[in-house]
Backbone:
């Protein structure tokens, strides 16, 4: 909520909030509308000081389409805000709210952002990925959004097996070479081969 600053009626509105937003047009008698306030105050911030009402008296002045009926006393300031005439307190509040809006987001903006963000959240929730069901420790979550077995095929090693070294097959060439070897039982035997260590 914006802070409200009420400027005393005797205070000149010039340089309000450090900016020249007001211009004093002199005294004004609301009883006779002298000088004509509608012709005198035409720019935003133009204002007059009420006089000739009499000490302790008030005068109700109706601005018609240019504002509401207000009770005026001597030294009150009436300001044209660009649309209607208001007493200085209202003009000060309006100016303060404008300044506050310039410095901080208005509640309307915050509310709008909240609603927008809430709508965005709803949209995001409706388009979010479904909850992933629990898989097994022997599985992995694949790119097609399904649980798959984590095995050698999954990592591109489908031709790899767990055969022991003892049971691993050998190539045909190796097997032919082994088949052509001389067995040790033929060492030093007739039709066999001579020992090379000097033993018969």
Residues:
């Amino acid at each position: 909520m914006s802070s409200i600053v009420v400027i005393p009626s005797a205070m000149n509105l010039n340089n309000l909030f450090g900016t020249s937003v007001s211009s004093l047009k002199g005294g004004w008698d609301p009883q006779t509308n002298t000088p004509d306030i509608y012709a005198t105050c035409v720019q935003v911030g133009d204002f007059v000081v009420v006089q000739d009402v009499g000490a302790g008296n008030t005068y109700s002045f109706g601005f018609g389409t240019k504002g509401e009926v207000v009770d005026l006393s001597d030294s009150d300031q009436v300001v044209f805000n660009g649309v209607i005439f208001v007493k200085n307190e209202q003009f000060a509040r309006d100016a303060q709210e404008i300044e506050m809006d310039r410095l901080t987001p208005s509640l309307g903006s915050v509310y709008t952002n909240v609603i927008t963000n809430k709508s965005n959240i709803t949209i995001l929730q409706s388009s979010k990925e479904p909850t992933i069901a629990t898989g097994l420790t022997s599985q992995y979550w694949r790119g097609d959004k399904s649980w798959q077995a984590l095995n050698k095929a999954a990592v591109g090693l489908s031709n790899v097996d767990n055969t022991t070294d003892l049971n691993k097959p050998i190539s045909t060439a190796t097997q032919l070479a082994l088949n052509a070897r001389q067995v040790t039982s033929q060492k030093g035997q007739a039709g066999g081969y001579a020992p090379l260590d000097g033993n018969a």
The helical segments are 37-40, 88-103, 107-127, 172-179. Confidence is low (pLDDT under 50) at residues 1-20. The first helix runs from residue 37 to 40. The chain is about 25% helix and 15% strand.
